[in-house]
Design goal:
It contains 28 helices and 14 strands. Helix 5 packs parallel to helix 8, helix 14 runs parallel beside helix 15 and helix 16 crosses helix 20. The protein has 4 domains: about 150 residues, 3-Layer(aba) Sandwich (Rossmann fold), CATH 3.40.50; about 100 residues, no CATH class; about 220 residues, Rossmann fold (3-Layer(aba) Sandwich), CATH 3.40.50; about 170 residues. It is of the alpha/beta class.
């Protein structure tokens, strides 16, 4: 290798900018763009590279190859499947494989999980079917990411649990048995979920000399960014490719590692520095010192358990944040909206404001959006872990789907029908939608009644204009029923959106957010059809009902990159804190909501899996203790807080309410840190 370089530093140290300069220099020296591989842990982190290659003056017309380890695996398996199929225990190695998305993997596993669930083995952990499926898939993915066998995953989970409760080991065994059954099903039908793709790629394809020759001829230069968010097998891949590269630039974000719960291995990835010719430790520019930089330094010391010295750090940090306290939750929201309105009136672009919470629930999001809208301020939100059925536009389309198939006997609740009518029929407000639904819809009666038979007085109250649109929708649903056997679910959503609800006068006509959600719903249903029914179906009513049922159970939609790329620069950004960090975005002003909530440092409860125990660096024979849980939570909170502070340029407002959304007193660990931060040095010294 001619040159290899490792750069480590916190957010804001210019690491990605250096990577872009490095790539530009390669291209300007005559290196073809297709010989440069940009390896990232997730596609959403590729935005700076995608923007750079479309900017004016970029030296090459060829697109950059921006890819994840999963993307490399799928590409390699598509090209070289015949090389490894015979040695991978597939029943029909001559047949091309089907690549499963997160959704379609859940569809297949749901068929296997039903009998297990009925046996009662999961009763002790009180999980719904969707949660059991997702956490079992998570075990498969973590096994693949670390190079573990399923036997090792099972042993690690049982050992780490110790003797605390005898009911948990049977639950672990059941989940791993479900994973084995799913893997056997995939091998019988040439199906490759994400974990199988990673395993086949790293354990089989990388061992093939022909693939190594192809890779060495294809890629000569490597740029690996956000190493701390990648999985252990990504480090194994980099070591595998190392000797065939002409140059390599490895970039590591110190104090990050927000995807540990998804298998990221920050400490293991840092070991790659030993491969490089030069290792560079960076810090943000020291001159001029900023209040935000001082705030980051002080909070880091507090979160590590140290008491900051009285060298002026706390005093310097004070201008960078303010503490806003309220008694009740609605008052906190109102206070934040008032401050945002004041900033916008003073000339701050809304796109330079982010409102962050540990969790962004429906009620909180609705309240923020409504109150900001009353002030004439646009807001946009992003919640990638949200189930597709939880989006209002998707709920409306699903309710109308159930009404179009009365033979399913899947009568949606009256409130869902009211909501659907109010969303898609432009002239209807909630009161009129309720009146209309009470008259035309009776669960079990089959479909919707006609507007024409309603008494004239009630027709006038609902309005004839709304009645005309309702009749157009109702007749479309009735006519569709005649074609239902020939129409797969994605055709239903696509036609209903294009032919009715997006037309002038209807509710989705100018609603871009609803259009995006429906597009994701169409894509979800199309993948369901293409993978589960690749040869089509004589009658699509039963497959359509299967899809409808699975979505209603809350199976997650796949990660749609368009939802990550959607950026309204003139809108206030509302998101969970971790989602904001994974976008790599920097704003002038941040508002942290409900700082007293313990959710800021709580780990997502996952009874069937464990992100720390299922990590390559965790001792296989070690019990997971309360002390380890405490230190893991404190470290995660430190990474989260530092990441947020370093992605703010001017000011952070810490909003606190004595009583949280559920009415309980809030005294979480983050609030304790903030209270210490707000104390003057003299008070801390006397304490």
């Amino acid at each position: 290798m001619n040159q290899s370089r490792y750069i480590e530093g916190p957010a804001g140290a210019g690491k990605t900018s250096t990577a872009l300069e490095h790539i530009r220099a390669l291209l300007e020296s005559g290196v073809p763009a297709e010989e440069v591989l940009i390896l990232l842990p997730t596609r959403s982190l590729g935005t700076p590279y995608q923007r750079a290659q479309t900017a004016a003056g970029w030296p090459s017309g060829a697109p950059l190859d921006i890819v994840t380890l999963g993307g490399l695996a799928r590409r390699g398996l598509e090209l070289f499947w015949p090389l490894i199929a015979g040695r991978a225990d597939f029943r029909d190695p001559a047949r091309e494989p089907s690549f499963l998305t997160l959704e379609t993997a859940q569809y297949y596993m749901s068929r296997l999980a039903a009998e297990q669930i009925r046996s009662g083995v999961y009763d002790s952990v009180s999980l719904r079917r969707g949660q059991i499926i997702r956490q079992t898939l998570d075990n498969l993915n973590k096994a693949a990411a670390n190079g573990f066998s399923l036997d090792e995953v099972e042993a690690r989970l049982i050992t780490a649990w110790g003797d605390r409760h005898s009911s948990r080991p049977p639950v672990y065994r059941a989940s791993i048995e479900l994973a084995r059954s799913f893997r056997a099903l995939c091998q019988d039908h040439n199906l490759l979920d994400f974990s199988a793709q990673i395993e086949l790629y790293t354990q089989h394809l990388l061992a093939e000399p022909e693939y190594r020759r192809w890779f060495a001829g294809q890629y000569r230069h490597l740029v690996a960014d956000n190493l701390e968010e990648n999985v252990p097998l990504a480090a194994d891949f980099i070591r595998w490719a190392w000797d065939d590269l002409d140059s390599a630039l490895l970039i590591y974000d110190r104090d990050a590692g927000y995807r540990i719960f998804l298998g990221a291995d920050p400490s293991g990835m840092a070991e790659l520095s030993a491969l490089c010719d030069t290792v560079e430790q960076r810090d943000p520019p020291a001159e001029p010192p900023t209040p935000i930089a001082a705030l980051a330094q002080t909070m880091s010391a507090l979160l590590e358990g140290a008491v900051p010295g009285h060298n002026g750090a706390a005093g310097e940090a004070a201008p960078a944040f303010s503490l806003q306290t309220h008694r009740f939750y609605p008052q906190m929201i109102g206070g934040v909206v008032d401050q945002i309105a004041a900033l916008v009136e003073a000339g701050t672009p809304p796109g330079q404001i982010a409102v962050l919470a540990p969790l962004l629930g429906d009620s909180l999001r609705f309240e923020l959006v409504e109150r900001l809208d009353e002030r004439g301020i646009q807001a946009v939100s992003h919640r990638p872990s949200r189930a597709l059925r939880d989006e209002p536009a998707a709920r409306a389309m699903l309710a109308l789907m159930a009404l179009a198939y009365p033979e399913w006997h899947a009568d949606p609740p009256v409130l869902d029908v009211v909501d659907a009518l109010q969303q898609v029929i432009g002239p209807l407000d909630p009161v009129r939608a309720w009146l209309l639904a009470q008259i035309v819809y009776r669960p079990g009666r089959g479909g919707l009644g006609s507007f024409d038979v309603i008494k004239s007085g009630m027709q006038e109250r609902i309005s004839y204009r709304a009645g005309e649109q309702y009749e157009r929708l109702r007749r479309w649903l009735v006519d569709f029923g005649q074609d239902a056997p020939l129409s797969p679910p994605d055709h239903f959503f696509s036609r209903l959106f294009g032919e009715v609800v997006s037309q002038p006068g209807f509710g989705f006509h100018t609603d871009l957010e609803a259009g995006r959600i429906v597009a994701e719903l169409v894509e979800s249903a199309r993948k369901f059809r293409q993978i589960l029914y690749p040869d089509g179906a004589d009658d699509w009513r039963a497959p359509g009902q299967e899809y409808y049922t699975l979505v209603q159970e809350g199976l997650l939609a796949a990660l749609y990159l368009s939802s990550w790329q959607q950026e309204q620069q003139d809108a206030v950004f509302l998101a969970p804190a971790y989602t904001f960090l994974m976008r790599g975005r920097v704003v002038d002003y941040q508002f942290w909501l409900d700082v007293g909530s313990g959710v800021w440092w709580e780990r997502l409860e996952q009874p069937l899996t464990h992100p720390y125990v299922l990590a390559r660096g965790y001792p296989a024979d070690q019990i997971w203790t309360d002390d380890l849980e405490f230190y893991a939570r404190r470290d995660a909170l430190r990474r989260l807080v530092l990441g947020l502070v370093r992605r703010c340029r001017q000011h952070i407002t810490l909003a606190v309410c004595d009583l949280g959304e559920s009415g309980y007193e809030q005294r979480g660990p983050l609030l304790q840190i903030v209270q210490r931060l707000a104390q003057p040095p003299a008070v801390e010294e006397s304490a």
